[in-house]
Write a structure and sequence with these properties.
alpha+beta, Aminopeptidase, 414 residues, 35% helix, 9-stranded mixed beta sheet, homodimer, Alpha-Beta Plaits, 12 helices
Chain lengths: 414, 414
């Protein structure tokens, strides 16, 4: 590795790519709704491939719908890859996911223009799906295909909110679900993903960019508390088996536990379904979700155990029936320390001040970690917002993030 | 008033009337769905009128659809009336409402057969509507017409779950909404309503019948708590404005307050709506209902104030925005002490053990209290259940309740 030179990223080009991509799935104002295999998604993937070709990269869509742009190296060996997902929440904003796909493209274009052919092959990627915003169980559909994490029956068993299978959605855009295994890669050395932070930590630290030390472990519980449905007026408090009272105690308890543990532990109750959900009826049941996360594998497990013991205790004391299913269970995923060090050093060479932090959100990187060294770069989010049309990162911060990415890729590939 | 004789109520006749009435709107097994002005309702009102005529009562339907059966007294003066509503929940069971309408009819038939013409005029009634099960804002439609509580524009402004106005529903069954004011009565002295308890207090006390000392005051709040929607992973606990955490604390608090106050205070959170209601998103808002009740007018007010102060305190401390609407606000309605005493004494003459209790549910009696002295008789409910096909009261307990009613009417009218 030679000394890392100063790399120039054109802010106007960055802004133009972000805005033109946001038109595909534009959902009122700054909103974007671009779900996998939708017409908007098709347009966006075509645009991404076209911009790759214009940048002198060799573009292709793989068998699951990921779009790759390749800058061949002068030496043989595994690829260095950077990118993120092209799909969005419904509605999400202009940055979550797509920014990382564009950052990879922009970094490769800048490196090629400013330094010519690399020694090692560089690739950028727009993963086809990460958000589960059309198919609730599809999450990481693109990166799972690359890493061999798609089961044979997944295409027919993955059902959309509209009732369609992901297999039929693939066929509608000309992809054959039987060929998904062909998307698998075994020739990737390192994967670096740039993403918006989605939290307020950089903003509070007054820094533009962070290097991510690891991705949090995540578990999603769906919990049902069952009591006895009764008349809200005629049934005395002391004789009730009220699942709402039990739910309220549990929701307070799990939130308070994570709050007391302090950063980076988080726990969230985001979804509630009450049966029968009527003003004057003590409910029969309350079904709710618990999202619990910690980036330390040991503490993560301890957090889950603390929550589970508390939920059982409340249900038992209140004479309620409780049961739960674990809907998502992703282990904590530490970044590759060497890559973290490379990116931190690269940031210094570009004069970009950074901090280290854990990612509280899940990312394609945790799938890619099965086949490659991974690390991530976070760009400051205004007010820590994401998964909303209001999410925003300034072009200045984004350019700083892409400078760090490009300098890191330079160190790895030139 | 002469000494009250023993009155005979035929259990087989009682059971036959309950079962034949349950056929009109039969909704699977023991379920009944009989909403006001529906075809089932028309059949049920015709049956009620026919059974009145067969019992020697003069039957008529008034301008809003209430069915009256009249046993003329030998002396002039205001009427003594007993009955309840003929409509049901969707589905409700075989007893809520209709049992009181039939009890009035059965009591008058027994009194006429066993003691001939009364001195004072006796009437039974099947109110057309009480449950708001077809038109959510129609509640007490029948008794409000009788007591002058219907506003001129109510028929056109009362909209059904299916979008129809109650005016159009009336016209479909041959009633003219413009004539509702003709249903008004100013010649009722006393109104006694028999109803299932809808709670477990009689069952726990091992008693068949209660005399009701008053109907609870009821207030329904619809409360909105607003925070800031954020990513469940990337946003630290200490920076959140999480309306779910605020909701959980409030729901726990109001339930605990009512529990600590003890009987007869009750407070229930029965309905919750979360926006956007997604597992991995800290909600933007939680909207929920609070149903708070107390039969003592002063303590009722104090309960509301305690809840309101607590909700404001939680919202303020958690930096959440809070607002509420009061959807229903019925004042507490004490029974007439003289009537309560008459019914308690009447029960003693029939050898029926009773207790006094407050009604935690709303009833037509609280409307009738605007124009007459009122009191109620409760019959034991199995497991305290109501508003469900599972509600059940034994024929033995029902007969005991009708004996108390008939003996009370005897004391008032003979």
């Amino acid at each position: 590795m030679t000394a890392t030179p100063r790399i120039t990223i054109d802010p106007a080009f960055v802004e133009r790519l972000i805005l033109e991509m946001a038109e595909h799935g534009s959902d009122g104002g700054t909103g974007v709704s671009r779900t996998v295999y939708s017409p908007e998604w098709v347009e966006a993937t075509r645009l991404y491939a076209r911009r790759c070709e214009e940048a002198g990269l060799k573009a292709r869509m793989d068998s699951v719908g990921n779009v790759w742009g390749k800058l061949e190296g002068s030496q043989p060996g595994k690829s260095i890859v950077s990118g993120s997902h092209i799909d969005s929440q419904t509605p999400g904003g202009r940055y979550d996911g797509i920014l990382g796909a564009l950052a990879g493209l922009i970094a490769l274009k800048a490196l090629k223009e400013q330094f010519g052919q690399p020694k090692r092959t560089l690739e950028c990627i727009a993963f086809c799906e990460e958000e589960s915003s059309r198919f609730p169980s599809a999450n990481f559909w693109g990166s799972r295909a690359i890493t061999g994490g798609t089961r044979v029956d997944d295409p027919e068993k993955t059902i959309g909110f509209g009732g369609e299978t992901i297999a039929s959605a693939m066929r509608e855009v000309g992809l054959d679900p039987a060929l998904i295994p062909e998307a698998r890669r075994a020739d990737i050395d390192s994967f670096v993903e740039l993403h918006i932070e989605q939290g307020p930590i950089l903003e509070h630290a007054n820094l533009p960019v962070a290097v991510v030390t690891g991705i949090t472990g995540i578990r999603h519980y769906e919990i049902e508390l069952r009591g006895t449905q009764n008349h809200a007026g005629a049934f005395p408090m002391d004789l009730r088996r009220d699942p709402m009272a039990g739910f309220a105690e549990i929701a307070s308890g799990v939130v308070n536990t994570a709050h007391r543990w302090g950063r980076p532990a988080v726990s969230t109750v985001g979804r509630v379904h009450v049966r029968p959900n009527a003003t004057a009826i003590i409910p029969d049941s309350v079904t709710f979700t618990l999202d619990a996360r910690h980036p330390d594998p040991v503490l993560c497990q301890k957090l889950y155990e603390t929550h589970e013991a508390f939920m059982r205790e409340v249900a038992k004391r209140r004479n309620l029936e409780i049961s739960w299913k674990i809907m998502i269970d992703h282990p904590a995923c530490p970044s590759d320390p060497g890559l973290v060090s490379t990116l931190r050093g690269a940031a210094d060479t570009q004069g970009v001040p950074t901090m280290l932090m854990a990612s509280g959100a899940g990312h394609d990187s945790q799938q890619m970690a099965k086949i490659a060294k991974v690390a991530m770069i976070f760009v400051r989010s205004k007010d820590g917002r994401s998964h909303t049309p209001d999410e925003f990162s300034s072009i200045e911060d984004i350019v700083a993030g892409i400078e760090v990415l490009a300098a890191g890729l330079y160190r790895l590939a030139y």
